[in-house]
């Protein structure tokens, strides 16, 4: 499960350069991945086919953003009730409040960065960290340097050194810029998993990783209105399952990587189900 130990294979984005083919597309052939991709597509289609989406999609998008931010913050230790998030106006208090504020800011910012992502993913990641860590003066908006500590207590994986982190982050960026035929779910899962494994910033890596996953899902055209918040699903599946699936990704084995992609697929499906329920509530006049 270590990202640096000899027993663990490196995750897929660090194994193959773009010139050697399309390693992300190759992941689509792993056992169970095609089924996950198809399941996600059907779940997303159900939301977009709902009659409420034709008339009130902006409301669904806004509600999905709020619920997605709540879910992402929960995985970073701020597990608040949705109504508490809705009620609050000040997120400058204790650590949980600041985490929730960072998640809300990232959700709002992600939609502004879609056009930049495919040309300069590293610039987008730096911007996401700057937005998330607005209350911190040091180490903001840039990848960590050798010897700098990382404040990410809920991710217990061994931390790659700065040189390995920079190399793999550049490799991931090259894959994104090169494009390819990989399904959106596969690309989103790899981006998410690599950022959690690398923890390239001094803080807020989990929040940034989940925001980047959202950017891929929306920017790919799979969820163009951002109404299927994977963060909701990740939170519903629970932190233990999240970290177990991440261990599989970091192991670099085909089974582990496929299990992580499937986990991300279930999360998107649950996010789609959440927004379908919102549509149903709006249709009944209950929300």
**How much helicity do the residues have?**
55-70%
The CATH class turns out to be Mainly Alpha
The class by helix and strand makeup works out as mainly alpha
CATH fold title: Fic-like fold
Under the CATH scheme, the architecture is Orthogonal Bundle
Low-confidence stretches: 1-8, 14-19
Main pleated-sheet profile: none
Our Rg estimate from Cα atoms comes to: 18 Å
Count of strand segments = 0
Tally of helical segments: 13
Instruction: Categorize the overall geometry.
Output: globular
What's the assembly state of these chains?
single chain
How many structural domains can be distinguished in the coordinates? 1
* Intertermini distance: 44 Å
Order of helices and strands: HHHHHHHHHHHHH
Strand content: under 5%
Show the helix and strand layout:
Elements: H1 23-27, H2 33-48, H3 51-75, H4 82-87, H5 95-110, H6 114-117, H7 121-132, H8 162-178, H9 184-198, H10 205-219, H11 230-237, H12 239-251, H13 254-284
Helix pairs in contact: 2-13, 3-5, 3-11, 3-13, 5-10, 7-10, 8-9, 9-10, 9-13, 11-13, 12-13
Characterization of the model:
- The protein has about 290 residues and is an all-alpha fold.
- The protein has one domain: Fido-like domain (Fic-like fold).
- The chain is built from 13 helices and no strands.
- Helix 3 packs antiparallel against helix 5, helix 9 packs across helix 13 (about 255-285) and helix 11 crosses helix 13.
- The longest helix is centred in the C-terminal third of the chain and has 31 residues, at about 255-285.
- The N and C termini lie far apart (about 45 Å).
- Mean pLDDT is about 90; it is low at about 1-10 and about 15-20.
